[in-house]
Design brief:
The chain is of the alpha+beta class. The protein contains eight helices and 16 strands.
Length: about 325
Amino acid sequence: MKEFLITKENANQRADKFIKKYLNEAPLSFIYKTFRKKDIKVNNKWIKENYILKEGDVLKVYISDKKIAEFNKPIDISEIKTKVNLDIVYEDENILIVNKRKGILIHGDMNEKRRTLSNEVLTYLYQKGEFKNDGKSFIPSPVHRLDRNTSGLVIFAKNLFSSQVMLELLKDHENILKTYLVLSFNKAKEEEGMIDLPLIKDEKNGFVKVGSIDSGAKSAKTLFKVIDENESYTLFKASLITGRTHQLRVHFASIGCPIVGDEKYGDFSKNKSFEKEFNYRTQFLIAYKISFKEVTGELSYLSNKTFKANISEKELKILKELGLKVKDI
């Protein structure tokens, strides 16, 4: 039997989510069977999996020490032994904002599980003594995502309540604004506006395309404004009203301004010429700025604060050579 005192850090979440984090190697079937067998109690009363844990609750899990040893495994961050070199834009006791470099995944996939931004952040916080990696404490995690080849700001929540606050802010899109810097081929037809084109994803090949709501596409809206342009290139700032997969990449391609370096939705011939001229083989898309409006509760100190990413020297040099200036962003 294992007993837990629910602290503020672990309160306000479903009991099954807490158990999944603690028994992180256990099959879901085992976890829900444990609930059905009434082997989980709170304050000496049997509970269902959807029970919301409260600060001060005593949670008891009636499984053997052998099963606990089998299913409770620390996250493997052992291969990152040296000091992690993160580009930290902002940090306090609740959140961490990191300037993600291009080429690194936020979460692991089938080909790369360890060298990820999430594991680098966990290692950084573990080395600072802010992440216990004991299977029961909250695991600091990103509250939104960026593609592998998109650089820029990513918010990590250090505790459960800040994660919940950030996810709610990102859900309503009213009190947090994410602004992207986009370099595209071709001259824009309009100086500013909104791209309102529903998107649908082919799950087999991961390709996203413009579709209709009737065919299952989801509403997707992007605000854009030209920062600078010439006959061959346009530098945009863009803000997401919705947050669909590959939204900016598909939307800008759909208006005849494919993002420079986009190997999936871009202009492949122009990408090849651009790479040859500037030695730049990645999409020129930067999550440049995050602005908070009104934030209530314990994170109210973030209200009206803005954070900006550092643009790489290489990208600034390319813009200069193209005769484009980063302004009014």
